[in-house]
Design a protein that fits this description.
Blueprint (H helix, E strand, L loop, with lengths): L4 E8 L4 E7 L6 E4 L5 H7 L9 E3 L5 H4 L2 H7 L8 E4 L4 H4 L2 H7 L14 E2 L5 E4 L2 E7 L8 E13 L4 E12 L2 E2 L2 E2 L9 H12 L7 E4 L5 E2 H7 L6
Parallel strand pairs: 1-9, 3-4, 4-5, 5-6, 10-13
Antiparallel strand pairs: 1-2, 2-3, 7-8, 8-9, 9-10, 11-12, 13-14
């Protein structure tokens, strides 16, 4: 069976965030999702020197998801054309607060504010990766402009530093909206618990139960598992 997409997960940042590289093996079209830290490693793993990155997509702009965007853009500046940076405009206050937040936490100065998007996601409904198209889902609550990406049934190769697995199913890049047996924090500035629950119930739980959920932190899960077992949804 032909592999539609290769999704590589790389854990980065002081917050153990799952940055992702998605590549279409037929076209070599490549995007990077949520580069929170270690831009050099992400560019190397994406083979950016010989395979230009066409898009950097942020589910949201918290420090652990967007802190390496500027460094990554600098590394990719010699590409024939720079990558598009896509995120929702509701994230602008968070994008501009990364550096002071890192300083307040006593973190090293490796996290940079996210520059303005080259294309705001506000009016976008889809995102192409090679021959495949993802739906952009508006899933606020953990942050005001949080987005998720949904691919209808695909043949996907999932790669991590320790394993490779092939699956055929729908795929959800959930950011920090939904985790295995948990949900995104809502005790952060501009977060809202009820809004997040609404996003999960109306946007994510309407997806097929076989949908594999790739979260911003921790292990994978499925929509079916979370509908049955997530204590935050079933409280």
């Amino acid at each position: 069976m032909t592999t539609d997409l290769i999704i590589t997960t790389i854990e980065v940042s002081h917050f153990a965030q799952n940055a992702r590289i998605i590549r279409c093996p037929q076209t070599q079209d490549t995007i990077i999702i949520d580069p929170g830290e270690n831009a050099t490693l992400l560019a190397k793993q994406a083979n950016a020197e010989t395979n230009p990155i066409h898009t950097i997509f942020l589910t949201h702009c918290h420090i652990d998801h967007g802190g390496a965007v500027q460094d990554l853009l600098n590394l990719l500046s010699k590409q024939p054309s720079p990558p598009e940076l896509i995120y929702h405009s509701n994230e602008i206050p968070i994008a501009n607060a990364i550096e002071p937040y890192a300083e307040a936490l006593g973190l090293p100065p490796i996290y940079k504010n996210v520059p303005p998007a080259t294309q705001w996601a506000d009016s976008l409904s889809t995102l192409k990766v090679g021959n495949k198209t993802a739906k952009i889902l508006f899933t606020p609550g953990h942050s005001p402009g949080h987005l998720s990406l949904y691919f209808d049934s695909l043949s996907v190769e999932l790669q991590t530093s320790t394993s490779t697995e092939s699956v055929t199913c729908p795929i959800l890049i959930a950011g920090d909206a939904l985790f295995r047996d948990s949900i995104g924090r809502t005790d952060l500035p501009l977060a809202d618990h009820n809004t997040l629950l609404t996003s999960i119930k109306n946007q994510l739980f309407t997806l097929p139960e076989s949908t594999l959920v790739l979260s911003g932190h921790g292990p994978t899960t499925t929509i079916g598992h979370e509908k049955k077992h997530n204590p935050f949804i079933n409280e």
